[in-house]
Amino acid sequence: MTEQQNPSTFNPGKGAGSAVGVAILGYGTVGSQVLRLMLENADEFAHRAGGPLEVRGVAVSNVEKHNGTLADEKGLLTNDARSLISRDDVDLVVEVIGGIDYPRELVLAALRSGKSVVTANKALVAAHSAELAEAADAAGVDLYFEAAVAAAIPVVGPLRRSLAGDRITKVAGIVNGTTNFILDAMDSTGANYEDVFAEADRLGYVEADPSADVEGHDAASKAAILASLAFHTRVTADDVYCEGITKISAADIDVAKSAGYTIKLLAICERLVDDSGNESVSARVHPTLVPRSHPLASVNKSFNAIFVEAEAAGRLMFYGNGAGGNPTASAVLGDIVGASRNKVFGGRAPGESTYANLPIADFGDVPTRYHIDMNVEDRVGVLAELTQIFAAHGISLRTVRQEEQEQSARLLVITHTAREADLSATVAALAETDAVLNVNSVIRLAGE
Amino acid sequence: MTEQQNPSTFNPGKGAGSAVGVAILGYGTVGSQVLRLMLENADEFAHRAGGPLEVRGVAVSNVEKHNGTLADEKGLLTNDARSLISRDDVDLVVEVIGGIDYPRELVLAALRSGKSVVTANKALVAAHSAELAEAADAAGVDLYFEAAVAAAIPVVGPLRRSLAGDRITKVAGIVNGTTNFILDAMDSTGANYEDVFAEADRLGYVEADPSADVEGHDAASKAAILASLAFHTRVTADDVYCEGITKISAADIDVAKSAGYTIKLLAICERLVDDSGNESVSARVHPTLVPRSHPLASVNKSFNAIFVEAEAAGRLMFYGNGAGGNPTASAVLGDIVGASRNKVFGGRAPGESTYANLPIADFGDVPTRYHIDMNVEDRVGVLAELTQIFAAHGISLRTVRQEEQEQSARLLVITHTAREADLSATVAALAETDAVLNVNSVIRLAGE
Q1: CB nearest to B313's CB, from A311, A320, A338
Q2: Which CATH superfamily is domain B20-151+325-345 in?
Q3: Which InterPro entries match (chains A, B) (predicted)?
Q4: DSSP string covering B255-310, please?
Q5: Which of A102, A375, B151, B434 is packed most tightly, with the most Cβ within 10 A?
Q6: B5, B165, B332: residue with CB nearest A333
Q7: Closest C-alpha among A211, A235, A214, A213 to residue A225
Q8: ipTM exceeding 0.90, yes/no
C-alpha cells in the first residue's frame, strides 16, 4: 500500500555524538557557500544534527581552477567524485553540480551505496524522480531536495510534512527569479525584452545558457516537483505544458498595464475534477496576466512566491529569495542537518509519495482564460462577426476593448474560463478570418 | 552536548501497515474538524502515515452535550480522558482542549506513558515547554505543536527543519487573527475600538474571554514559541514584553494613517548583539506603526503573516489563515501524520533545541522607536524646550509634525531607534514638563 514510503531496511542510527561524514559534489556559487557556512557554524550544526558534521571532500572537475579557495586551503579538493562518494567515512552526499546526466550517475551511486543525498538540482529531480526515489528506498536512505524549488523558501518541507494532513487543490507561483526580474523591469521601465535581457545579463541575473530560464524549462522542472508533492502523483518535467517569456513585448506589458494587470511567468499546478468526479493533475508554466491587486503582482525583482490552496488550510503564501548562492545554501544546509540527524538518531524523512497516481490531464482539457490582442478591419459589423466566432466555440467574453488606429482597429478581448483547446481553436479560427488582420498576442490570465 | 534532542530510548517503529491508535482530547471547533477529516480522508492518511490511523476515542467533559455529533454516532465519546490515554491501543494523543492546567496533566500523562502528543495549545507550550520536552525526551516520543502558532501556516516545521541550517536573526509578524480583524476594521472604517470590538464579537471573531486576544497574551505565547525555535533558547510567555490593543483609539489610527502608517499588533522576536558581541534574545508583543508599503500592512481581516530573517536565506514571509477550526485542524492533522509515521517507521522529530541558551534581554535595553502624540502649549519656544528633553536623553528625532488646535498645539514626534528605557524615560520627562499638556499616546514603530 505504501511501498514508495517504506524503507526495506531500517537504519537505527549511529548514536548521539557520532560524526557524520559529508561529501560535497560541486564547488560553484552554492557549493562554496555550503562549505563556508558548514565550517563557520560547525558548532551550531553539531548541536542541531546531534553530532559533528565533517566535510570529507569537495569534488570538482578541475582542481587547479579552485586554487586558493577555502576548499583548497582545507585540502578538501578532489577531481575523483566516485572515490569520494565511496569512502567508508562518507555518510551523506551533497550534489550541487547542476546538469542532469553526470549528477544522476553520481547521485544514484551514492544512494545505492547507502549514502543519503541532498541535492539542489531541480532538473535532475524533475526528470528522474522515480529512479532516484527507488534507489533511496532500496537502500533505506534519504533524498532531500528543498533547494530544488525556490531556494531558501521552505516549500518542499511544508508540502511533504506540514500539509500532509490536508488535501491540496492548487499550487501556483513565481518560481524563477531571472524571468521575474526581466518581466518586472519591463513593467516598471516600459523597455522591450531584448534591452531588459541585456541589462539583466550585465547584472549577473542570467545564466551562461539562458534558455532554461527564459524558455520556462527551469520553472517547468519546479512545477513538476511541486505537483508531485502536492498531489501524491508522479509528475515529470515532460508532463508540464511550458511556454517561456521570449515573445512578451513591451506592447503586451503596456496593454496589460492599461487593463489593470501585470505579466508574470507562473507555474500553476492544479488538481482537476471533471463532471463525473474523476480527478486529474495539471501542471503548466506560461506568461500570465495577473491583476495588480493580487499579491503575486507585487512580487518584484528576482523574488519568488508560491501560493498553496488546500481544503482545510485555505490559501497560504510563501515568499522570499528564490535564487542565489546564500539562499540556496540555506536550503541545502537545512537538508544536510535533517539528513544528518537521521543518520545519527535513525529514522527517515518522508520519501516519494505517489499513491494517488492521478492521470495527467490533457492540456486541451485544462480550464484557462485568454487575453487576445488583435488588429482588425475598421468597419461596421466586424465586432459582431468576431463575437460570433467566440460564441460558436462556446467561449463567453468578459471584456472587449476597441482602440482606433490608422486604417485598422485594435481589439483587446478577455474571455471567461473555458477549455484550453476551445480557446486555442477560437484563436485559430479568428486568425483565418478576413476581418482579423493580425493576432498580435495571446496571453493567459489567472488570479481573479 | 545535545541532551535535549537525544531520545534515551529509540523506538524502531511498529512496521509498515501497522495501525496507529489515536485519542482525541477535546471536541470543540478544532477537535470536531480533526475527527471529521480523519474519518473522511482515512485512506489518504493511511498512505501518508504508512498505516491506518484509528481513532480510539474522543474525551470530553460532558458526553451528553455532544449527543448526535459524529463522535457520538461513532461511539467514540468518553468523559474519562485518563483511561482513554492509558489504553494499550492508543499510540498518539491529540490535545485540543485549551487552557493550561488540565491539558498539562493529560499531556504529561500521555508522554510519560510513551504516547506521542500533538497539541494546538499555545498557552500550554509557551508556559511549560521545558517540562513537556523533558517528558517527551525521557520516553523517546514526539511532541508536535505546529497548530500552536498561526494555525495552518507552516512555521514551526520550517523553523525546526527547513531553516535548521541557517542562523535566524529575527521573526516578526501578525499572529493573532482577532486583534488584526479589529485593527483592520478600525483602519478601514475609522470607527473606535469599542464599536469595532462589538461588531467582531457579533461576527464570532471574539472568544468568550477576549482578554487573551486583546491584551496580547495569545500573541505573547506564540512569540515565546517562535523565539525558542528561532534562537535555540528556552523562552517562555513570562519572558515576553506584552502590550495589547485596548488603548488604541480612532485618533491613533487616524494620525498613523495621515503619516503613511497602519497599526498592527506585532510579535517581534530578535537576536540582539551588543557592542561587545554578546548575544541575547528579545521577544515582545505590542501595537506597532507599520509603513503602509510594508507587506505586513496589507495583511487584513483575521489573516496572519510571519516574517523570518536569516543570515543566508535573507527575508522570508509566510502568510495565511491563522485561526479557525479547519485551518487549525489542517496543522493538527499534518502533525498527526508526522507523529504516526514515526510510530510506524521509527525515528523522532527534532525535539526542543535549547543549546544556545542565550540570555533574555532586559526590555529596557531593546532598541525600539516611538511615535509620540502630545498636546503642548501653543507658544514660542515650546518646540525648542521639548527637543532639548529628547536630546538630553540621547534620542534623535526622525520627524516632528505640529498641528494647530484651539488653545493648544498637537505635536506628533517620530524618533530614531534608541534604547527602550531611554525612550520611556524621555516620555516620562515630557509628561512632567509644564509645556506638555497631555501625552495622548505612545506607540512603537517597526518595519522601516
Answers
A1: A320
A2: NAD(P)-binding Rossmann-like Domain (3.40.50.720)
A3: ACT-like_dom_sf, ACT_dom, Asp/hSer_DH_NAD-bd, HDH, HDH_cat, NAD(P)-bd_dom_sf
A4: HHHHTTEEEEEEEEEEEEE-TT--EEEEEEEEEEEEETTSGGGG--TTEEEEEEEE
A5: B151
A6: B165
A7: A235
A8: yes
